[in-house]
Design goal:
Strand content: under 5%
Number of strands: 2
Number of helices: 15
Helix content: over 70%
Amino acid sequence: MTSPSSGEAVAKLSSGGLGRLLEQRVLLSIAVLAVLPWLLPSHALAVNVLIYGVVVMGYNLLFGYTGLLSFGQAAFFGAGAYFTGIAIGRYGVPWFAAVPIAVLLSTGLAAAIGIVSTRTRGIYFSMVTLALAQLVYYVALQASSFTGGENGLRGFTVDRISLFGLPVNFLDPVNKYYVLMAFAALAMWFQSRILNSPFGAVIEAIRENEQRARACGYDVERSKLIVFMLSGAISSLGGCMLALHLSIVPLDILHYQTSGMIVMMVLLGGARSFFGPFVGAAAFLILEDVISVWTPHWQLFVGAIFVLFVLFLPKGIWGTLLDTLGVGKARP
């Protein structure tokens, strides 16, 4: 019987300790996000990373953990933003009540789309989600009296809020970031609870082998519908955050190009990893900021970089980093 060398033992002990530390993925993620505004070039960029990180996190639940490749996630992102803006601007609903209302309505939209799309599989599922999301886009375009049509939704502003009786200037980017980070922390806690539950094991079983999961007695169709709704709810929360951040809702948020951008972000960061969506959102937005300074054709270069990532780093930035550290199974 051979004993491991001292170097191997140290590496094993290090990876084990790091793995146990990374099990606290929600707290670690919150800690990283808490200092993000001071790590990035601007506070506005940090807010965008936070918003798109939540949207991509919702999509990762559907694609990374369940294996359902949807091309229509922009529908829920946009629905959350539109419902929030309409509730505040048209009906005078306070912002803290508009957010849960918007998430609830968006979850209903996800249920309607999910009932149709989850009856299909493979490329047909992707095409159905794309078609139904484009239907939502054209409904928003035509219902201009509610949505503002091609000009987008305007006419609402959240400039000052009260937290526990204390007035907070919401126009200050730092204040705005930490208020919105509370929503992101709630979404991360919620998703972590899902993944740690028996239902989380079921959706991963569906991803690995749908037929075997069905043979084991799991209700695959109902599980896929539930995870579709949960994914839509989390992504719509990102839309709510965007509406509070910009005080406008551009129509482009519902376009299929936004869905494509969400797919790129999750692959850049690393599907199946808890913190990967935030890494992917940061990578994409930083690339956009840097390259668009040099050329208006920044999409060409970002697309080429994306292809290189798919070819040489299929697990994305965060997934590859965790595998290099030897803690891939405890992927936060």
